[in-house]
Amino acid sequence: MAKKFHLTLNVNGEHQELLIDPRRSLLDVLRNDLELRGAHRGCDSGDCGACTVILNGKAITSCMTLAADCDGDSVITVEGITPADGLHPVQKALVAEGGIQCGFCTTGIVMAAIALLESNPHPTEEDVRDGLAGNLCRCTGYKKIVEAVLNGERK
Amino acid sequence: MVIGQRIPKLDAPDKATGRTVYGHDVKLPGMLHGRILYSQYASAKIKRVDVSRALKLPGVKAILTAADNPPTKFGYGKDNTPIKGDVVRSFRDEVAAVAAVDADTAAEALDLIEIEYEPLTPLFDVRQAMKDSAPLIHPERKSNLFQKYKYSHGDIVEGERESDVVVEADFELPYVAHAAMETSVVIASFDHRDHLTLYSTTQIPFLLQRDLAEALGIEGNDIRIIQTAIGGAFGRGLDIYPYEPIAALLARKAGKPVRISFSRHEEFLAAPMRQPALIHARAGAKRDGKITFRDAYALLDVGAYISWGSVTPLVMMETTASLYRVPHVKFEADCVYTNNLITGAVRGYGNPQSTFYTETLMERLAVALNMDPVDFRLRNANIPNEEMPQGLIITSCGLKECIEAVAARADVGSQRSEVGSQKDSRISNQKSEINNQKLKRGIGFASTLNVGGGARIYKSDGCGATVKVDDFGHVSLITGSTEIGQGSETILAQIVAEVLGVKVEDINVLNSDTDVKPWDVGVHASRTTFIAGNAAHIAAMDARKQLFETASELLKAEPESLVTRDGKIFVNDSDRSADLAKVARSRHYREGGKVILGEGWYDPPTKMVDKDTYKGNISATYGFGTQMAEVEVDTETGKVRVLRLVCANDVGRAINPMAVEGQIEGGAQMGLGYALTEELIVKEGRVMNPDFLDYRLFTSADMPQIESIIIETDDPQGPFGAKGVGEMGGTPTAAAIANAIHDATGVWLTQLPMTPERVLRALEEAKK
């Protein structure tokens, strides 16, 4: 067993200090050490985007991010953007527009869309399609997801 | 009225917020991590298995070898075992399994297991496997041919004689993966009575209960299956697969719960793929535009063990025999064992394959007749209320409306004259201009026929439902059916809400526990809205009857005069009412009281096909659809870009149009992949591209504009007129695109996916 790594992380605004196996990905730490199961493991190779979280303001695939590399960083997960009561506008739009079926990719898409809208508050349809191209969905055909992100932004 | 409303999925808020518990999220106390060791050879004898070093690794709690196998073989072909013993027959063969305290330890233990193989000559080519001289994959079967299908109606010789034009082609179709975003996962746990609880992503909880009991040598009632939220399935969970008994055997051996969750790599190797097919097909037509005959032969590689991949010819023959009105049809298929991957059910189940050859041959016929492809299809379209020679009884049928609807959007139709000609300029305003350059544009059509009222492939095609009204006026629907993301929970809740006059949000749907829910065949064949919907409707009507019984006492009115509305029971044409809660309480708090518990069971009036002729009305109704693809082909690179896909589907009635569109648009994503990008490359039995980097799904950036048009025909037997729609979205897509490529360039593509390389090769061959 490798020597433990002392990781300091700000997760959803809360200070966390953890002793972790240094080989662990950020996704492992979020899911297993912090019990934040909103980020999903779809491929473990950065191809599907189901594990997308926001690291220091940027959407990243947490399965491809070494947790030890995030020491001192700030992470926002789907749990962090969900209001105590109700839904974030992006979540609300995805629900209302039918952008969710099995839901396994949804949390990653929520985080990717929020990061996209942060950097580009008035995206075109093409911007949204390109911005979400790293998030695979097998159920919806993306149309309603793209519409939701565009409409959520407009409202 | 909640029927016909665009009601968001009831489970969507939890999915959007990450609260939904998928199999990967389930953690039981003391749970161990299971891992499977797969074969190093596609065909070999196992000479020696030594697990002693692995057993010594701290943290390893159990190791499974073939010595632990129960005696009964399992799977659709009853030819599979949890761990393979004497012989391995494919690279996905399980040769050992480990349960350990964490995933790393389990992986390390697999590396310490020593297996000595004696390689045998493998058999990868399905044509070779058919030869008498071929080695036998399962010697006890005496032949590699697992099953032969022979269907015919009319007289093919007569059909050919009547034909003015005959077209034919060879087709080659690839392995395709479900690629559900959540990989397969199972958690097995035994209690003190030795009863097994299996948390599972299965689509057939009740059949799996039976299959797994047989495989483990225990009783069905010793097994409880709990379906976790399922992150996509698409046919993956329709059979028992080795990892399920392996998890149970590991859990029993270790005395602790065991989870096996597939890696993506493993999912691309061990899940049951859409089977590759070699097809030769012919068709003919008369000068007047009537089809005369169809004749097809499909050679199917079903892999090393039999699963549902061996039954897809039933669907292929349905398309061949009954999509459009064809007087003379012959269809044959051979399902053959090889040392390749297991093949199973994938959305569409044989239909994308058969629709590809059927509809590209339709286009060839139209071209050969110099007839407009829309006209040609309309002349031959299925019509309502007709029994097909195959025995399918078509009731509601909107195929003509589907063809006309997409043709209207294509801005073509009867006025098109030079079909397949690059001079055709009606496709879009810019076409003639663009076509002078390296980019060629074209449009193509294809239709589909799909079961829409269940599919009787077992003796029962039934589903049970109960509807309970509680003390607070809330309603629980307990249904046998399964939510796999498609939205059945919401659709069924809408049906019950409509009957009981309550809000959809006031209905709680329970559908995940075999100890609780009534029996059902499973979620497949686009059957849930129709079958489970009818069952839920019956149960809701029964609950309503009970409510009316009590309400008639409270309101002093005849039950016949009562109606449900706004969560209340009203005396018709008056404002006298009692709310559901009050009625329920009145029934509970009295001497000789009763609960309000409606019961429903629906098994459609259909037949299994005859085992010799394969004829019979397998479904209570049929769904239809047509797609129009507009493509742009880069003749320098061979790259095909789909600009637009217009999809019209006859769904009987859209209980929830947003959910219907979701099925059509999602199906289109799979159909586009089948057409252009998705191919699990299997070379000498090995999967060469087991990840999403190399197995390319369409992304949001790749998707064309999709227009979905809902055609409503009000099916006489469907719940509120609805028919199934789950699988139709992707079945005609590849054919529509191939036809559009021909329209643009004049070349026919017969191999899927139509990659730039294949398109370019076809263009170059055409130049010769």
Question: Helix segment count of chain B?
Answer: 19
Task: Kindly identify the CATH topology of the largest domain in chain B.
Answer: Aldehyde Oxidoreductase, domain 4
How would you name the CATH homologous superfamily of the largest domain in chain A? Beta-grasp domain
- Tell me the span between the first and last alpha carbons of chain A: 51 Å
Mean pLDDT of chain A: 96
Q: Termini separation of chain B (Å)? A: 63 Å
Q: Which regions of chain A contain 5 or more consecutive residues with pLDDT less than 50?
A: none
Describe this structure in words.
- The complex is a heterodimer of chains A (155) and B (768).
- Chain A has 155 residues and is an alpha+beta fold.
- In chain A, helix 3 packs across helix 6.
- Chain B has 19 helices and 30 strands.
- A seven-stranded mixed sheet of chain B has the order 3-5-1-12-9-10-11, with helices on both faces. In chain B, strands 7-15-14-13-8 form a five-stranded mixed sheet, sandwiched between helices.
- In chain B, a hairpin with a 5-residue loop joins strand 9 and strand 10.
- Chain B is globular.
- About 2% of the residues of chain B have low confidence.
- Chains A and B meet through helix 3, helix 4, helix 5 and helix 6 of A and helix 1 and helix 17 of B.
List the SSEs and their pairings.
The complex is a heterodimer of chains A (155) and B (768).
Chain A: E1 5-11, E2 14-20, H1 26-33, E3 52-55, E4 58-61, E5 73-76, H2 78-81, H3 89-96, H4 106-119, H5 125-131, H6 143-154
Parallel strand pairs in A: 1-5
Antiparallel strand pairs in A: 1-2, 3-4, 3-5
Helix pairs in contact in A: 3-6
Chain B: H1 12-17, E1 32-38, E2 44-50, H2 52-56, E3 60-64, E4 87-88, E5 94-100, H3 103-112, E6 114-119, H4 126-129, E7 145-153, H5 156-162, E8 165-173, E9 185-190, E10 196-200, H6 205-216, E11 223-227, H7 243-254, E12 258-261, H8 264-270, E13 277-285, E14 291-303, H9 313-322, E15 328-337, H10 351-368, H11 373-380, E16 386-387, E17 393-394, H12 399-410, H13 431-435, E18 439-451, E19 463-469, E20 475-479, H14 488-500, E21 507-510, H15 528-555, E22 562-565, E23 568-571, E24 577-579, H16 580-588, E25 596-602, E26 622-634, E27 640-652, H17 657-676, E28 682-683, E29 686-687, E30 705-712, H18 733-745, H19 756-767
Parallel strand pairs in B: 1-12, 10-11, 14-15, 20-21, 27-30
Antiparallel strand pairs in B: 1-5, 2-4, 2-6, 3-5, 7-15, 8-13, 9-10, 9-12, 13-14, 16-17, 18-26, 19-20, 19-25, 22-23, 23-24, 26-27, 28-29
